[in-house]
């Protein structure tokens, strides 16, 4: 049975832990506010780029080969999966959820490609890099620590790697796996096709809920475009890299906001659990203290009775 000293020590340890989790919750809440502001500013621009692109595709009567980033390859030999995780833990199931989504994608769609060493992983965040490196996956680049100072240049570098490898034939498809920020307490696990550019616009649950849809694009827009000079590929050379880079940037910001929300909830739960544990330990301490006092009183009474019997 634990002694009073052991219980007091444990109570002190739990109190210290609770102070840490409460502070981490407050820090995560402050970071979440900033992350929300960034994603709310970025979503409209990323959506407008995608809307403009698909508007041009629907109205231009372009063939698939108008630009190499549109071309779909029948023989899939190389795959790049961009996994957006976090740099740190203590965020509940945030990192493990995105790892599960990536592993399910690989197992269900790219098992043969993985067996032939055609699968490549580009992990954003230290946790993702470590996770896949330990599993002997072909990890492309090292983007550990990017969330300490998240900048658009990171998305630009990732976009360059994805597009260069796709155009060179190193990989035939590129997909992005990330957590989409839904609200403070929940995220959506997303597997989004990046390359080749999908013929139909990909919509996440948040996009659908916010009305960012594109089913009536032909009805809503009736304008035709004139290309001067008569080479539509020039505008796609400008627009498609922006589309790829901004969708990666959006995924980074979505994941960053989702991570802070998950960490805030996890630390709030940890703080509440510490309070429950403290109540239990204090009850245990009071019972042990009461038992010790009762034992001491009984010993005193027994000693007094023994002295009284000896005197008689």
Written overview of the protein:
The protein is of the alpha/beta class. 62% of the residues lie in helices and 11% in strands. The chain contains eight helices and five strands, in the order αβααβαβαββααα. Strands 3-2-1-4-5 form a five-stranded mixed sheet, with helices on both faces. β2, α4 and β3 form a beta-alpha-beta unit. α1 runs antiparallel to α8 and α5 packs across α8. About 2% of the residues have low confidence.
Which key phrases capture this entry?
five-stranded mixed β-sheet; 5 strands; about 60% helix; single chain
How are the elements arranged and paired?
Blueprint: H1 4-60, E1 79-84, H2 94-109, H3 111-115, E2 119-124, H4 126-134, E3 138-139, H5 152-168, E4 173-183, E5 186-195, H6 205-209, H7 217-220, H8 232-311
In short:
This protein is of the alpha/beta class. It has eight helices and five strands; from the N terminus they run αβααβαβαββααα. The protein has a five-stranded mixed beta sheet, sandwiched between helices.
Helix and strand content put the structural class at: alpha/beta
Beta-strand percent range: 5-15%
Low-confidence stretches: 214-218
Write down how many β-strands occur, each being a DSSP E stretch of 2 or more residues. Answer: 5
Order of the strands making up the biggest sheet: 3-2-1-4-5
In N-to-C order, the SSE pattern is HEHHEHEHEEHHH
Spatial extent as radius of gyration: 29 Å
Describe the main β-sheet briefly. 5 strands, mixed
Number of H- or I-type helical stretches = 8
The residue fraction in helices comes out at 55-70%
Distance between the termini: 40 Å
Q: Which shape, going by the Cα principal axes? A: elongated
- Indicate the mean pLDDT: 84
């Amino acid at each position: 049975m634990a002694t009073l000293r052991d219980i007091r020590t444990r109570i002190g340890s739990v109190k210290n832990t609770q102070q840490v989790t409460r502070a981490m919750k407050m820090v995560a809440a402050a970071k979440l506010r900033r992350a929300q502001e960034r994603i709310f500013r970025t979503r409209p621009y990323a959506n407008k780029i995608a809307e403009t692109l698909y508007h041009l595709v629907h109205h231009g009567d372009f063939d698939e080969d108008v630009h190499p980033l549109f071309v779909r390859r029948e023989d899939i030999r190389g795959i790049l999966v961009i996994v957006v995780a976090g740099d740190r833990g203590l965020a509940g199931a945030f990192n493990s959820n995105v790892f599960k989504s990536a592993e399910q994608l690989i197992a269900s769609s790219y098992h043969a490609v993985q067996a032939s060493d055609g699968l490549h992983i580009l992990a954003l965040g230290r946790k993702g890099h470590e996770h896949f490196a330990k599993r002997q996956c072909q990890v492309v680049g090292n983007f550990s620590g990017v969330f300490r100072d998240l900048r658009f240049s990171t998305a630009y570098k990732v976009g360059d790697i994805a597009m260069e490898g796709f155009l060179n034939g190193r990989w035939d498809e590129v997909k992005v796996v990330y957590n989409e920020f839904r609200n403070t307490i929940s995220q959506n696990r997303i597997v989004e096709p990046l390359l080749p550019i999908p013929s139909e616009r990909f919509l996440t649950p948040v996009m659908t809920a916010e009305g960012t849809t594109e089913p009536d694009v032909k009805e809503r827009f009736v304008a035709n475009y004139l290309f001067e000079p008569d080479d539509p590929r020039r505008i796609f050379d400008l627009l498609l890299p922006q589309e790829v880079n901004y969708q990666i940037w959006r995924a980074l910001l979505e994941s960053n906001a989702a991570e802070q929300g998950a960490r805030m909830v996890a630390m709030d739960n940890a703080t509440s659990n510490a309070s429950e544990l403290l109540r239990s330990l204090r009850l245990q301490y009071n019972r042990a203290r009461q038992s010790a006092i009762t034992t001491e009183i009984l010993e005193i009474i027994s000693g007094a009775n023994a002295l009284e019997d000896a005197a008689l």
